[in-house]
Amino acid sequence: MSSDNSLCTMSSQDTLTHSKKRPMQSSSDGEDEEKRERRRVANRKASVACRLRKKIFINELQRQVSELSRRNNEIEEENAILRRMFQAKVAAEQQQANLKSSQQIGNGANMRSLAVAGPLDARTLSHSPAVTMSPSPSGTGSTSQSTAPNGSREDFYAELVKNALAEFQQQRREEQQKRGCKV
Q: Which residue numbers delimit the BZIP domain (predicted)?
């Protein structure tokens, strides 16, 4: 308790000495008032500058938010396209695998019937058309059978990508037209 009292007495003594020093330092009340006024003006200027910096900072943050939101939307659209393309590729590969297995089953039956009919020569096999998968012209990503002896997987996937991109661009145009009508 005595230590608390000593602190209180010290602080009160310090206040007395400081209050005694103030009148000695300033020669008149006018100078004190002038200093206070200068301090107020400086504080006002500093607060105005602070508010201005804060406003600029907030505007910059809002600009960044809008830019990042726009970029996020673009990335989400691109992601959706890539997912559709991947699903189309998986579906096409699955369909090709099913087609090959059905061809093998069919070829096994054909071989048995041909063995009864007679031997095959190389000319007969080379002139039979190859069955490949190609995207339908509607661009929906569904596949249809066509006879194309030189059809390659790369061409097939390129066509899938082209159709998916065309479909995406069409959807985007329709969305933009809808937005244009609402505004």
A: 33-84
